[in-house]
Every structure is written in C-alpha cells, then in structure tokens.
Design a protein that fits this description.
Elements lengths: L8 E7 L4 H8 L7 E7 L6 E5 L2 E5 L1 H4 L2 E4 L6
Antiparallel strand pairs: 1-2, 1-5, 2-3, 3-4
Amino acid sequence: MATMEPGQRAVITAVTGFDGTIQRLMSLGLVEGAAIEMAGAAIGGDPLEFRLYGCGVSVRREQAERFLIDLSEPVG
C-alpha cells in the first residue's frame, strides 16, 4: 500500500507480520480481500490516508508496507 498514488484503487492480497499495531489496523477492515483507495498523504508523506468501506483510515508508511496489494484487481 505504501507505493500507491492518490486516486489509485487496489485490493489487499496479503498482510505480513501480525504485531499489535497491524492487528488493530486489520480490525478496522484492512484485511485480505478489502478494496481500498489511496486518498492522499500528510505533508512530508506520512501518514497515508486510505478509503475503505466509506471511511478514511490513516496509516503510517512503515505499516502500509506490511499490506500487499494487487492494483490490477477490478474495484467497484
């Protein structure tokens, strides 16, 4: 997710490393199969904001690197 550009849509394909922070993000909906859209980033590029299920979620860049995505998946 960390390499996405604003406006890009993708589907999460895998999550690596299951520490407490990642588990909390997963409880917010960042799980395998979730459709996400990159909304933007704060000044300086961190944190990143994503939209999923009609809500915004801010994620630190180092955490976003733990979520693998597929940009070729069709997202509705």
